[in-house]
Every structure is written in structure tokens, then in C-alpha cells.
Amino acid sequence: MRPPTENSQLVIAAPLRIEKLTILAGAPRLRVQRVGMGPARARTAAQLLKDDPARALIVLGVCGGLISGDRPGEVIIAERLSTVDERGELENPTDCHAPRQLAEALERQGLSVRNGTVASAARIVHGQARTRLKNSGADAVDMESAWLQAGARGRPFVVIRVVADTPDHDINSPIRAVASWVSALRALRYTARALGTLQTRRELQGLLQ
Question: For the chain, which domains are there?
């Protein structure tokens, strides 16, 4: 059996087409799979990712911020991942792989990142539901990561999310929505570029063993 090529060392799961295109614009050599938005598509994608030969799985895309004072474009690497129960609170927490080491590596590439808890919800979270999640200990919310984790099949699993909107920059305002997405996608491209550099230098492989 031939050893994996550099590009097969890891696979990146991106929910949306625009996220995949943005990631590839920043790092064309990364291998990116578009998995679709929401838990149903994430579960389907996880079954396919189980058979992927990559040695590690990274979820990379945008998210909703929960902390007042955060701004669109903030980069969060999940220390832990939780789903959201019917009351809008965190449940089923799991740890992600090497979050602090990865944050330090990306910071050395010039990015401003932080670790935190990412909550995965079955639907878009607005208003008071965001407050409940924040009070439960979450820093950001998405709709895929927790269900994609099954696709890692015991391999290193990483979640990197870029904030697109926050309690202070809600996407319900069309003007703010456009500005927030521009900031988030720019940061997503820079994050992908940094990951690509780490992969080329073989630093990323060491972190994901």
C-alpha cells in the first residue's frame, strides 16, 4: 500500500459552496469537501467521510458568535464541542484535538485566534436563544460540526470557525449582513492560507498525529 500523499494527510469539511471556494482561494493545495448546511446533511457527509483515507478531519467555515464585543472575522478553534438540547442549552460535550497547539501555530502565522466552546444547533439561533447558549458556556454556534465528528472515526478532529455575526452585528440587517460576511470570508481565506503554509512545512501533520 502506497503512503498517503501530502494532500491526503487531511481532509477539510466545508458546509457551504462559498466557504469551499474561499478556502481554496487561500490555499489551493488543501483538499476540501463540501458537506452541506445543517445536521441532516452533516450526518450524511459523516458517513462518507468515515471512508476517506485522510489521517485527520478539519471542519472549517463560518459560525454565529455569542459573545458581545466579538466582531465578524474572529477565529475560534474549538476546545470542546456540544450539541444543543430542546431547552437551548449545551449537552453531549466532547473534546477536540490539540486546540491550544493549533491556536499557537496559527498565531505564529500572524492570525489572531482563540480557543472556545462551539455549540451545534439544529436550526439558526437568534435573540434570547443566543443568550441561553452563551450562559451555558458556548462561544459560538454552528449547524454541522457536532454531527460531522462521527466522520472522524477516531482520527484527530479539529473545528475552526470564523464568526460571521454577533449579538452586536446581527445578520438581520442587510447592510450589516453583507459587511459581516465580507469580514468573515476574508478571515476564512487568511485562515486557510495559514493552514496551507503549515501543511507545506509539515507542521500541521505533526499537530494532527
Answer: 6-207 (3.40.50.1580)
